[in-house]
UniProtKB/TrEMBL annotation:
Alphabetized SUPFAM superfamilies for the sequence: SIS domain (SSF53697)
Protein name: Glucose-6-phosphate isomerase
Record key words, sorted: Cytoplasm, Gluconeogenesis, Glycolysis, Isomerase
Broad EC category: isomerase
Biological role: Catalyzes the reversible isomerization of glucose-6-phosphate to fructose-6-phosphate.
Species name: Paracoccus spongiarum
Length: 536
């Protein structure tokens, strides 16, 4: 493995000032050879500096990391989350006809039973058979944070054309502004509140849940009757007063950021209906089958992971941008930030040693074309290349607005072309000459208009954004993160890095209230003093 990392680095250095366009000139078949199709999804990775030797070395890296064995261990329910001593089985939530055993017990009957209960509840609520104290439920408020918010929020926005259920709202931030703005204008008598928290202890969620309960209690005789809990902690949901018939539980082998496929996806199911939710699960399960069966060199999650490793660990580009050319994928970058950075932002390997290579990159992004009018300047002309991951659907959902979609797609393809080709100084000079500039001024102005090009990107092309394809894409990214984690040698399924700040917040709270709170550093004490003074 170490040898492969150094061979990859040497190979990258040996590419010198070669350009991506040179790779196309040298290989007439490159566009097709570095474009992989699976189950209707197309992943084009030809606009990168990965040439045939780099591809072979990367594949050898995957082979050497024993992806196949780690993958099998995950799917069969081994405790691969070793620091929490847990299996990792979110895949079981989307394979309802499958069979998975954990500690000798078939977990699928319980998974299926919960899924059936969710579906029955969704059908009742959508039909009005389950109603609020003022009539049919018109609005659903999902209160959760991190994985208990980002997945369903992202998916609800993505599948807007399929909405035929109640309006769906999301509250995550402990900032009172979030819940105040959300509840404003809602009728407590026709609102359902979902408290989504695996642990049912997360301070943001529980604070918001209590505020929502008070809001409802002011208008409704029995507020708890309009609350649902999505949680693994049945005792705590009972303490909160939620009837067990409206508690949808899941096991500790479903990680927060992988939980949209089960009860945490209830808001999505209410919005789009159980059938569409099942299409979403089917898409995820189809990607699971592809991941388990396709050879490494045709395996989409493996290829995405290898391209990511090439750009971050080998080329040293510190960030990657996710750029969906689909406005409904507005929250996909935020969702992927948690998925990728909470999973692979780690400095210690599975065995407790220091990680031998750098950990996962900063992931960020925004839908196109909006991003083009904001940060693409830096992507095109900044000093540090940003590998870009474009996502584009061939068809939109607005047949009357097909010309919008063609324009959207043209922008997407134009950006990746521009990033790769750039514009030379000679071309820029010619542009300036055409405007009548000459000599030193022509040169000065031309230099600002040069695009260095040779900036890598990939494009994921999907037929149309539907429940099924969304399921495929989400599962694709989940497995990509898994493969990257296996190759880096870390545990992608814990998140110890979020703990310290949470603990300290509890100790800072008394400081802000002016209560005795020893043990803080001088800067924090000083800031807290200023905060108190400004509030006085
Ligand atoms: O941010 C840490 C984290 O544990 C995430 O992994 C999780 O998705 C989120 O908090 C919410 O946790 P819970 O569902 O237990 O409220």
């Amino acid at each position: 493995m170490t040898d492969l990392w150094s061979r990859l680095t040497s190979h990258r250095i040996s590419q010198g000032d070669q350009r991506i366009t040179d790779l196309f000139e040298a290989d007439a078949g490159r566009a097709a050879a570095f474009c992989t199709e699976a189950d209707g999804l197309v992943f084009d990775w030809s606009k990168t500096m990965i040439d045939a030797p780099a591809r072979d070395l990367l594949l050898a890296l995957a082979q050497g990391a024993d992806i196949a064995e780690r993958r099998a261990a995950m799917f069969r329910g081994d405790r691969i989350n070793e620091t929490e001593d847990r299996a990792v089985l979110h895949t079981a939530l989307r394979n309802l006809s499958g069979s998975v055993t954990v500690d000798g017990e078939d977990v699928m009957p319980a998974v299926r039973a919960t899924h059936e209960r969710m579906s029955a509840f969704a059908r009742d609520l959508r039909s009005g058979a389950f109603a609020g104290q003022g009539g049919k439920i018109t609005d659903v408020v999902n209160i959760g944070i991190g994985g208990s918010d980002l997945g369903p929020y992202m998916a609800v926005l993505a599948l807007a054309p399929f909405h035929d259920g109640p309006r769906t709202h999301f509250v995550s931030n402990v900032d009172g502004a979030d819940i105040a703005d959300t509840l404003k204008g809602l009728d407590p008598a026709t609102t359902l509140v979902i408290v989504a928290s695996k642990t049912f202890t997360t301070i943001e969620t529980m604070t918001n849940a209590r505020t929502a309960r008070d809001w409802m209690a002011a208008r409704v005789a029995d507020p708890a009757a309009q609350f649902v809990a999505l949680s693994s902690a049945a005792d705590r949901t009972a303490d909160f007063g939620i009837d067990p018939s409206r508690v949808f539980g899941f096991e500790n082998w479903v990680g927060g950021r992988y939980s949209v496929w089960g009860p945490i996806g209830l808001s999505l199911m209410l919005a789009v209906g159980p059938e569409n939710f099942e299409r979403f699960l089917d898409g995820g399960a189809a990607m699971d089958r592809h991941f388990q069966t396709a050879p490494l060199d045709r395996n989409l999650p493996v290829l995405l992971a290898l391209v990511g490793i090439w750009h971050h660990q080998v080329c040293g580009y510190p960030t990657r941008a996710v750029l969906p050319y689909d406005n409904r994928l507005l929250r996909l970058p935020a969702y992927l930030q948690q998925l990728e950075m909470e999973s692979n932002g780690k400095r210690v390997a599975m065995d407790g040693s220091d990680l031998a290579v750098v950990s996962g990159p900063v992931v960020w992004g925004e839908p196109g074309t909006n991003g083009q009018h904001a940060f693409y300047q830096l992507i095109h002309q900044g000093t540090m290349p940003v590998p870009c991951e474009f996502i584009l659907a061939a068809r939109g959902h607005e047949p009357d607005l097909a010309h919008h979609h063609i324009l959207l797609a043209a922008n997407c393809l134009a950006q990746s072309e521009a990033l790769m080709r750039g514009r030379s100084l000679d071309e820029a000079r010619a542009l300036m000459a055409a405007k009548g500039l000459e000599g030193a001024e022509q040169d000065r102005q031309a230099r600002h208009r040069v695009f260095p090009g040779n900036r890598p990107s990939t494009t994921l092309l999907i037929p149309q954004l539907t429940p099924y394809t969304l399921g495929q894409v989400v599962a694709l990214y989940e497995h990509r993160v898994f493969v990257e984690g296996v190759i880096l040698g870390l545990n992608s399924f814990d998140q110890w890095g979020v703990e310290l700040g949470k603990e300290l917040a509890l100790k800072v709270e008394p400081l802000l209230k002016g209560e005795p709170a020893p043990g803080h550093d001088p800067s924090t004490e000083h800031l807290a003093g200023l905060f108190r003074a400004l509030r006085a």
